[in-house]
Design goal:
The complex is a heterodimer of chains A (275) and B (244). Chain A is mainly alpha-helical and 275 residues long. Chain A is built from 11 helices and 1 strand, in the order βααααααααααα. The chains are: A mainly alpha (275), B alpha/beta (244).
Chain lengths: 275, 244
Amino acid sequence: MTDSTSYHYRADRRRDLARATSDIRRGIGYWRLAIELANDDLRQRYRRTAFGALWISVSYLVFAVTIALIGSQMTGVELYGFMVYVAVGYLAWNFINASVTDGCSVFLNTENWISGLRLPFSLFVFQSIARELITFGYGAMVAVLIILATGHELTLTAFAALPALLILLINAVWAHLFFGVLVTRYRDINQIIQTAMRVLFFLTPLIWTPEQAGGLREWLWWNPFTYFIDIFRAPIVQGIIPIDSWIVCLVFTGVFGLATITLFAHFRRRIAFWF
Amino acid sequence: MVSITLNNVSLTYPIFDSKTAASSPEGAGRIEKRKHGGLGLKALDQVSLSIEQGDRVGLIGRNGSGKSTLLRMIAGIYTPDEGDIRVNGQTAGLFEVGLGMRVEATGRRNIILRALMEGDSRAEAETRVQAIADFVELRDFLDLPVRTYSQGMMMRLAFALTTSFGADIALLDEWIGAGDKNFRVKAEARMQDIVDKAGIVVLASHSPDLIMKHCRHAIWLDQGAVKMSGDVETVVSAYEASDS
């Protein structure tokens, strides 16, 4: 709408890819608006509550502490160490989970804008990711408090969690575009994904460690979330950089990216007709 | 130079809610089988047209004849299955009330969001609020959520949001129904303003009176195709004579 005052569109499938990448570029150009819209979303969600978005922190804190208490009672692992493990893993999981589940409804929720204005589809993806990042921030504050309170010792390696977060971010973009396109067309996929993510929460080492998994351990490595959690959590909790997990994550990001761009390029112009 | 050109533009909507629908209302696009299975509605059928700067064009036709689809096509919200569309100039479209707005946010907030969307910086957006507030005359209602507005108030805000950012081409879909007399005068003046600045106004309506009053040229759509185009009197009288 703003980047140019002239608009030309010729029906030509060969241009789909260029149009898809330009959509993403233009969406990034709207980052300021994406953040404003994300803030509005959260303001709306916590409207008329006294604590507002701080409820994110509260609910996260209650969950991490409760799980740590139950886990250490049940398995006899040391409480403070386990609390840090759960807190950091759950922080990453919340972001991953939101980028998949919110990704499913990213276009359905913004139909009102898509059918009224010529804006890049990716703007709504970045709006959703901005909202998830803000949510992540509210959780991260608590995670820092837990690390300080438990006296967990960090090493410089902990900074390796930052590039891991970047990988999670890139995959969040893919997840939104991929599932957003699929779900807008095939609504059943939304139900499948929501159910799958609830189950995967228990099948990913978050509230238990791989050592406690017993026979399940062999199967754990088929779950891609295991690796994404690992590259973020291990530098903070164990002070190591898990090279194997990094390799899996990088390959996954590349393949997922290619699949996503192909899908998005192919179906982008049809999204507006699927509501 | 502001202009709109369409070359053999066709568009078929997928139909998901029925597998058996076969007949569409008189004058509306036809239902057909799609290449990859399922049904589709041929909303635009080989539409070619050209609109030059300074023109006020009315789109007339029966319900479902493709007027709104054509407006959205010009706005770049829908893209053609076949054909080629070229629009020189910045477009602003007013389709249904509430589209492109957050009804749970205040009127003021909606102005800021739209300004950011139009490429304003945050500071520019803040200064824009006053100008638009003066135009819509909603006073303190501007600080209430849009969902609390009456239909007419929402219309006023939507019209102001659409026309306040220096667009060269205004695309209006049956807009004039809502809004009181006072506001209609202002809206009319603003449309004239766009045309005077060598812009284009395209107005879609099934009401011959409205088209006659506001437009110089008219395009008659039937079953998604251009049935007739030209001088407004000629087209509208032919449309009225067609026993609809």
